[in-house]
Amino acid sequence: MFPTDPTSTPSSPPPPPAPLTWDAAPPQGTLATPPAQAWAAPPIRPGASIPSNRPTQPRIRTVEGLLVGLAAAVVAGAVWWAAAAVTQRQFVYLAILAGFAVGQGVLIGARRGSPVLAVYAVIVTLASLACAEYFIQRTLAIQNAGADVALWQNLDFAREVVRSSVSNSPINGVFWLVSAAAAGAVTARRSARPLI
After folding, report:
1. Angle at 80 between CA 111 and CA 114, to 5 degrees
2. Domain boundary assignment for the chain
3. Is the N end or the C end of the chain the one with fewer CB atoms within 10 Å?
4. Predicted confidence band of residue 55 (pLDDT cuts 50, 70, 90)
5. What CA–CA distance (Å, rounded) separates 98 from 76?
6. Which of 140, 134, 139 is nearest to 162 (CA)?
7. What's the pTM?
């Protein structure tokens, strides 16, 4: 055992650090926070536009709108032809759904509507319905009359088949126009957006 100095008193522990409060001074050194001026927004130059928080309009994508609209027209025409082939009846109401589907397809691709895309949607819808009508009449001729009709002969023959079909049943032409109008109405407004 070491001798102790009777005059020395035992050392007391150091005092605890002062508690941190909101009024305490910020720490100093390399980890200190920068002064408040560094976080301030930069000044706005005179005449500069102030950015708004409004969402911007999506950029129109014309090529994508044309391609997706064409794909929707092919699918809609194929569905109309398949329904007629299975039931041996034409459902003219499906023509209106075809026009709506083409309009939505154009909107899905383009992200928003425009009058130019509306004209395209109308043309593609009518072309889709005309092609589907040709194949519907061909299928019905094979099923009902046992006719041996080639898949495709020429454009003049197809045009004559479609023209005679519409002239024999004018209600088909009316529904085609309603379908084309639906496709145009869906895509004509610049504020139009796809449902999905």
Report:
1. 20
2. 62-188
3. N
4. low
5. 5
6. 134
7. 0.67
Please give the DSSP secondary-structure letter assigned to residue 43: P
Tokens of 146: 């046992």
What span, in angstroms and rounded, lies between the C-alpha atoms of 40 and 5?
Answer: 62
Cα–Cα dist 108/196, whole Å: 7
The two counts, helices (H) then strands (E), for the chain are: 5, 0
Report the alpha-carbon distance of residue 74 to residue 115 in Å, rounded.
22
Q: Helix, strand, coil % (nearest 5) of the chain?
A: 55, 0, 45
- In this structure, are residues 60 and 112 in contact, taking their beta carbons and an 8 Å threshold? yes
Which of 48, 178, 164, 60 has its CA nearest to residue 111?
Answer: 60
Give the residue from 16, 129, 151, 13 showing the smallest Cα distance to 77.
129
User: What is the pLDDT averaged over residues 144-151?
Assistant: 81
Reading the block at residue 170, the tokens are: 């004018």
